[in-house]
Amino acid sequence: MAHSAAMVDVLKRELKARGVTYAHVARKLGLSEASIKRMFSRRSFTLHRLDQVCELANADFSDLARALQQEEKLLSQLTYEQEKEIISDRKLFLVAVCALNHVSLEQILAAYDLSRAECIQLLARLDRLGFIQLQPGNRIRLLVAPNFSWLTDGPIQRFFKQQAHNEYFRSRFDRPDECMIVVNSLLSRASSASIVAKLKRLARECSDLHGEDARLPLGERSAMSILLAVRHWELQAFAELRRKKPQRLLGTSARIGR
Description:
single chain
């Protein structure tokens, strides 16, 4: 299942690389654009439908398999030590995030107070870490997979929790392109699992849009951060008011029965 879903992701990127839009696919297949988006979002393709879309991408199953094999060699996560080194140097962390966002050397220099030599040295460190490949002409080639993520509770996430968390929420979230929603609910296990699955789909969609917009000039893009989280949780102030369960006295039944 995971392998077939990854094949669909590869197909999606192949279509985008060739400038084939959802609308174009919809017209060719005689479906609505919403249906096509839903198919890719849910990764629900019949073999016949997958073959039709492959034809639009001018690719076949073997092409997708080869592309997937190449992607599987890329890093989906760094090691703990790699993350620790990146977060230990503010400038190195900055350049790493820029590389993740497909920002070139020249664009980094135009936006941040770094010298060319200093920036190249930082990129060389990322190259040694296996995060990027610094190519001729100081071009940056990412060596991380499209589904790359920082380690759960690793150095990067800990940095966010300890330092960036308060900065992130120091906002009214009232701009047209901002939003913060807090929903408290009592859900079954099935409903909870459904919510988690939808959040993961939203994260994938954000990643897809990130890759799609990488082709735009830097001036047409701005840094956006989405924090997705769901957990079993009750406000501590409420938890403290919960009625304590009476402790069962050992041996009570035996004594009553005598």
